[in-house]
Amino acid sequence: MRLEDRHEGNILVVSILDKRLDAQAADDFKDKMSQYIADGERLIVLNLSNTEFIDSSGLGAIVSVLKMLKEQGKLVICGAGNSIMRMFKLTRMNKVFNMFESEMEAVDAMRG
Amino acid sequence: MESMNDLSSEAGITDFQQSVRYHVKYSDGKVWEQASRGDLYNAVSLTTRERLIDRMHATEARYQKEDAKRLYYLSMEFLMGRSLGNNIYNLGIHDMVGNALKEMGVDLEEVRETEIDAALGNGGLGRLAACFLDSLATLGMPGYGYGINYEFGLFRQEIDNGYQRERPDHWYSEDTPWLIERPDEACTIPVYGRIEDSQDMAGNYNPMWMGWKILIGVPYDMPIVGYGGKTVNYLRLFSARSSDEFDMQIFNAGDYFKAVEQKMSSETISKVLYPSDSIEAGKELRLIQEYFLVACSIRDITRQYLRAHDTFDAFPDKVAIQLNDTHPALTVAELMRTLVDEYDLKWEEAWEITRATLGYTNHTLLPEALEKWPVGLVQHVLPRHLQIIHEINHRFLKQVYAAFPDDPDAVTRMSLIEEGETKQVRMAYLSIVGSHSVNGVAAIHSELVKTSLFSDFYRLWPEKFNNKTNGVTQRRWMLKSNPRLSELITETIGDSWITNLNELIELENYAEDKKFQKRFLEIKKANKERLAKIIFDTARVEVDTHSLFDVQIKRLHEYKRQLLNVMHIIYQYLNLVEDQKELTVPKTYIFAGKAAPGYFMAKLILKLINSVAELVNNDSRVKGQMKVAMIPDYRVSLAEKIIPAADLSEQISTAGMEASGTGNMKLAMNGAMTIGTLDGANIEILEEVGEENIYIFGLQVGQIQEMKDIGSYNPWDYYNNSPDIKRVMDCICSDMFCPNEPGLFRPVFDGIMNNGDFYFHLADFQSYVDAQERASLQYREPSVWAKKAILNVARTGKFSSDRTISEYAKEIWGIKRMI
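^ inputs. structure came back:
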């Protein structure tokens, strides 16, 4: 699971570089995200614009990141394409996460 | 696009022939001289299909131009039978094709006989759906069937030593020329998983459906051409595939066999039709099949709708969905889930849309046949849907409580969840609550639905309840099956009856016409000769075509009372051989029908029929006065050969148990006299044909109910007071019909004598005997019989499915004719 990260101030922007967030990649993703949180990151924008496929394991991994942050942080999503958005709606995860079209909107919203 | 005349012109004929040769060469890969019958069938079918495609596109364009409201008929069963003959008749090219092929040295009838029935149904419910599709297209209405593309349809029945043996029915679900695959319209369907509680951004409870497995539904379209060829709708059947993505990850993980296992498990969903025509209690695979159909359908319907509309405001104005029995009842929850979870509609708005869109057809009065699913199973397979059902129930019961404040038990009685050791979801109640219309399928049935089966719901919502008496398509059941009779009718009164069956009433003027009667009887005789050959070829019984062909063709079931028929046969046999009483007329008793594989008593009755046949047919004392034959593997294409040859149509269910029946209508339309109880549509047949033209017998619904209520029925009373009954029952109990398997039929005897005769065979026996005798006496006078039979044909206009569909369209669906 390849991730790219950078900071916008105190906001961590994590981009998934792989096309698939699936059962095979989910554990690795969780581990990497949990390392960020262990390192003190609390405001995270997750960029899914490269992701073409997500299954229930991938979705579950994103939920578990949210749980890791608990009350102390925020996780928002940006760049979800139509098929990814469908999966979020199917699970009602779109009610739980703020979802933005672009990374810039997501970062601005976090700052605001 | 060619007109109907073009198709049958010189150029049309040449085109057809060239196309057939093309397909033999390039689709079958064969040299013409080596083409098998199967190759020819494939080529002729593909050629015919080509002539449907332009019409199918033109039909869709017509609908889109008007943004027409469309009807989607959801059914787990579509008993389509064969398509080639039906399609060439409806296109009006049957004669042209016959001649064109003859010029090429090919016999059309032989080619037609090659086709395997599409047996994607068990019996009446599935065949009704098929007749409805024909009528929708003939009436030019935008109506589609949605179903499952079972790889294996209803089992093939073989008879081995008198017993039913089930064999797989592999009908080439993905290789048939009549299905067009639509892989680009595949849908993804989640199942299983769990609910994780969370809060949404406003702090409200938010259930998340996680951990599901994905199924793919790939549609296959079967064109449905209406008579006259102007409209071609389609039947969309979904095949189940596992998600490629899902396979990939397991393959990538290196576990090839696990991937194959998972693939097989997903594809099992559309593998086989459940062969019972009553509920399949508690089977997880069946629940998944039902959900698969519903989810694929709703995906497809909403996707089509959203291509032309931006919001769901107009959804009920553009979409009507009809639930054929409760099998697609999950539509209520799935449509709600789709609107609320995926499209963010508020609950109340989604609920209004759902109710305005859905209609439910009930097909049974037997409470034990109403579908219920254990809550635990639904929780396991569809956790989000169970939540939605609970929410629907919660809101509904508040309504019930408010409506019936003086009836505290109403809430328990009407709840969608049945309490008890195992809580169950009552699918009929879900269907009623989620629909704006609830209909039965015959006048008496619909009345009993209101007053008995769903009386609480009728009290709450009387405006929802209505009747739509079943019907059958005269195109398949007269024009195609009985071309000789059809030709006689058309010569006499013209051909408008083909699209307006009420025109048959003109035949009343010919009922006493000697010339007409003569031709009518000759046609019946010719049909009987064709059937006699089939009986000999398949059942090895030689029958006399002068005898009265007494026909009972339907699923084997105790409530349909094949046993009562057998009892009468035994009674007649004993009269002959023990009392030397000749029969009033020679009789041939013809049975056909399948028993559900797990239904012990139905299978035993089937064996009894064959055992009685074995004895009767080989007893020289009978002197050919009676023969009994069970024709194996009853299916649509066999029904098309039996029905035109029938003289007497057995419709002898215990009153109050057969919702409608449709075989009764087909037989009457083809000039068979009905012997039947006042049950289902028999009552309306009586009303139409007149009591002198039908043989009614037996207890009525009210009488049976009264006897049940006071517990006054005791079969031993009948046994002890009727020597005839005693003799028949003693024979069944003895080893007369099972010398090599002593005691075999004891359970049949016990079922009647010691278990209360739940279906009232003995109570109806004498009046049945008397009605049979009336029929036999009248059969002795050909002119009397012919007149009555012709009047039956003349007066069955009401029973066209065109009438039924017109009623549904006007009163429930709001769809219009587009031609």
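The beta strands of chain A are 3-8, 11-16, 20-21, 43-47, 53-54, 74-78, 99-100. The longest strand of chain A covers residues 3-8.
thumbs up if we can close this ticket
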